[in-house]
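Encode chain A's predicted structure.
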Amino acid sequence: MGPATELSEKEEKVIENWLLTMARKGFPVHKQNLILSVKKIIEETGRETKYLLNKTPGRSWFEGFLKRHPNIRQKYAESVSKARAVVTQDRIESWFDEISSYLREENYERILNDSSRIFNGDEAGFSLCPKSGKVLGPAKNKEDFYVRVTSEKEQLTVMATFSADGKCFPPMIIFPYKRVPHAIAESVPENWGLGRSDSGWMTAEVFYEYISNHFLPYLKVEKIQKPVILFVDGHRSHLTKEVSQLCDENGIILISLFPNTTHIM
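Encoded structure for chain A:
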C-alpha cells in the first residue's frame, strides 16, 4: 500500500544484508550512517525524489525501512563506564566464538592458517603541541618560558598496519591541512601514504583512500593471496557502506576488535 519506495526492493535488500553483516563483524551501524549511505546511493544514481528533502531520508523513511525489514531492530548502544568496561575472559572468548562462527559460515576459516593473510590496522594520534609541563627558572619571572606557536588541538594521525607473520606496511600520515605543503610531501618516504583532514584525524574518506590506494596495491606488490582478514577497531570511519563495498569487492574481510580491548587484543 502507498507510493513506491525511493529505493528499489533489491537495493533495500542489499542495505539490509550490509547492516546484518556489519553487525556480525562487530560494526553496528548508527542511524545517521545508514541515512548518509542511502543519500549517497540516490545522488550517485542521479534519480529524482518526491518525498525526500535534499535527497536525504528522514524519520518517516527510516521508520518505514524498519517496518519493511523486520530482521533489523534499532537498539540503544550500551554506554560503558570504566567500572563496566572491565575486560573479562568470558567476554573475549565470546567475541572469538562469534568471529570464528562467522568465518566458518562464510568459508573463510582456512585464512587463519596463513599468517601472511591476517592483518591488524590501527591509528595513533600525535599532538603537534604537547603540554610543556613544569620547568625551573627564576622565581621573580612569572611568565612562561615556552611560547606555543600552534593550536593546542592540532595533531596528525598515523595509520599503521601489520601482518601476523611480522611484516609492516608503509604507514599513512594524515595531516590537519586543506592541502599538504609541498615541502612536507617531499620529505615523506616515497612509499608512505599521505592524507589530509580538517582535524588531522582519521575520517571515512581518508580510510577509503588508505584501503584503495595503499593497502590493496601493497597486497598486489607482495603477491598476497586474497581474501585477507583486516582487524581494526570499531571507529565509525571504518564502517561506511562505501568502505564495506570496497572491501567486499576486493577480498578484504574487515572485522572489528572487541570494544575497549584493543590495548590487549
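Strands lie at 118-127, 155-163, 172-175, 193-196, 228-232, 252-256.
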